[in-house]
Design a protein that fits this description.
This protein is α+β, with helices and mostly antiparallel strands. It is about 25% helix and about 20% strand. It contains 6 helices and 11 strands. The strands form 3 sheets. The chain has a 5-stranded mixed sheet, with helices on one face. Helix 1 (about 5-20) packs parallel to helix 6 (about 195-215) and helix 5 packs across helix 6 (about 195-215). The two termini are about 25 Å apart.
C-alpha cells in the first residue's frame, strides 16, 4: 500500500497536469470506489468544479475544488492516468474525470480497493475520514511526550500501534519496519513498554526515513508506480524491510521475518530489543 512518501510522489506528478483545470464531465464505472456521497450526487456535484490545488493528509490525496474537496485513498494499487477524451477504457479504470482541455483523468485500480470522498470544502478536516487522523511526521505537535502518552495504555506490539493512523498518520508496513530498526526497538514489544527516550528515537527516525523516501520518490515494491509511471528509488535504501535471510547491515545477524497481527515484519533479533 502506498504510504506517505508514495502519496506525496503521486501528488507531485499530478500537480502540473491538473491544477487550474475545470472538470467538465464525470463517469463512474465501479460504484464502490465512491465512498461518499452517493454516486449520482458525486457525478452531479463535481461537474464545473475547478481544481485549485492538490495536497496530502496522511495517505489521502486532497484535491481542492471550488466548493468541495475530493479525497482519494489509493489503498493497495490505485493509480491515476491521463488519456485523451474518448480513448478506449481499460477494464481497471473505474472513475473518469473529463477536464476542460479534453483530457480524460482516470482512476485505475486493479483490486478495486481505492476510495473517493467528495466533502464540502469547509468540512474537509472536520469530518471523517480526515478528522480521525493523527499528526503528520513533520508536525510540531508530534513530541516524545505526546507519543509516550499515546502508547502508555497500548498492550499491542509497537509494530501494530505505530501503524495506527490516529497516532501518526502516513506510516505503513515498509516504513514501520525501517523506523523500528533504526530505533533499535523489537517490533514485538508492547507499545506501553516503549520509554520516553525511545519515543524520541521513533520521532527522529520517522523524519530521517520519510524525508529521504520523499526525496527519492518513495519505494517501488510490487505494483506501485506514480501516475506517470515514475518509479521510486527508496527500495535501494531499505535497511531491513524485504531482506529476510540477508545479513543485518549493523551486526551481520541474519534478518528474520515474522507476522505480527497479520503484517509481514522484518527485524534483527540482535539489534532490536
Amino acid at each position: 500500500m502506498p504510504e506517505k512518501p508514495e502519496v506525496i510522489t503521486v501528488v507531485n506528478s499530478l500537480k502540473d497536469r491538473i491544477v487550474g483545470k475545470k472538470i467538465t464531465g464525470c463517469n463512474v464505472f465501479w460504484d464502490n470506489i465512491i465512498a461518499s456521497p452517493t454516486v449520482d450526487e458525486f457525478k452531479r456535484e463535481i461537474i464545473n468544479q475547478k481544481i485549485n490545488d492538490i495536497t496530502t493528509r496522511g495517505k489521502f490525496i486532497v484535491i481542492g475544488l471550488d466548493d468541495y474537496s475530493l479525497l482519494v485513498h489509493l489503498r493497495m494499487e490505485g493509480k491515476f492516468f491521463f488519456r485523451d477524451k474518448g480513448d478506449e477504457l481499460n477494464k481497471h479504470e473505474h472513475v473518469e474525470l473529463i477536464l476542460d482541455d479534453s483530457i480524460s483523468f482516470r482512476f485505475h485500480d486493479v483490486r478495486k480497493f481505492g476510495k473517493m470522498h467528495l466533502i464540502n470544502k469547509e468540512e474537509t478536516y472536520k469530518v471523517k475520514p480526515l478528522s480521525e487522523l493523527g499528526y503528520e511526521y513533520y508536525d510540531k505537535g508530534l513530541t516524545k511526550e505526546y507519543l509516550f502518552d499515546a502508547f502508555k495504555n497500548k498492550k499491542l506490539p509497537i509494530k501494530t500501534v505505530l501503524l495506527d493512523q490516529s497516532i501518526i498518520t502516513g506510516i505503513g508496513n515498509i516504513y514501520d519496519d525501517e523506523i523500528l530498526f533504526m530505533s533499535g526497538i523489537d517490533p514485538n514489544r508492547k507499545a506501553s513498554d516503549v520509554t520516553l527516550d525511545e519515543c524520541q528515537k521513533i520521532i527522529d527516525n520517522c523524519v530521517i526515513v520519510l524525508d529521504k523516501a520523499v526525496k527519492l520518490g518513495g519505494t517501488t515494491i510490487k505494483s506501485f508506480t506514480s501516475s506517470e509511471g515514475v518509479h521510486g528509488l527508496f527500495q535501494n535504501e531499505l535497511l531491513i524491510h524485504g531482506r529476510r535471510g540477508e545479513e543485518c547491515k549493523n551486526c551481520g545477524t541474519e534478518i528474520t521475518k515474522i507476522k505480527i497481527n497479520g503484517r509481514g515484519t522484518y527485524y534483527c533479533t540482535k539489534c532490536q530489543k
